[in-house]
Request: fold
Amino acid sequence: MEKVDHTRKVSSDGQYIWLNKTEINHKYVYHFIARSVDIVGSIVGLILLSPLFLIVAFLIKKEEPEGSVLYSQIRVGRNRREFRMYKFRSMCVDADAKLAELLQHNEVEGAMFKIKDDPRITKVGKFIRKTSIDELPQLWNVLKGEMSLVGPRPPLVREVKEYGEYDKQRLLVKPGCTGLWQISGRNAVGFHEMVSLDVLYIKDLSIWNDLRIMVKTIRVILKPNDAY
Reply:
């Protein structure tokens, strides 16, 4: 697991980092190369992983025949644009209906919901979440240009409603399939620390950093971290 400074104040002098939207938008070379990598990477990934997709789909259907293979949610992307994000379904069919009664057991501070032993997660769901296989359908979102291979975690609409001005900075770039949060402890990292990691990532946008995160993500998949 990568060691990081889990603090909300992330600048060298202990102050908040405030990003410049114009500077980020004007990184034309980075955005061009990143989009090119996204297109090639998502196409190759969808093709090479298609056998795995079929196996996972079969296992999900076998456990709950009445449920769908994929699960979709409206998420918030760059500049607060909403889009429908896809994942392999890892929870029971009526998971959304059961959410309200579980909110009081939230184990993550801030505008995010997570509980370690979520009773809504299926047996197959526990495995595909632990290995991050449930996230693979997001390659379709990457191909469509709604997400990037690397970037901040795409938040829910209800989460964004709780954001402060500092937190909203993570919406200045496309959300990603993986990012600093995923390789830095994931659910062991709280909401405020996650935002700080995203701000640091956006501040130092570079193809080199993206490639480094992707390589470390592969290690996390092969040796699962605190995902649940």
In short: The chain has one domain: 21-222. The radius of gyration is 17 Å. Confidence is low (pLDDT under 50) at residues 1-9. Residues 28-48 form the longest helix (21 residues).
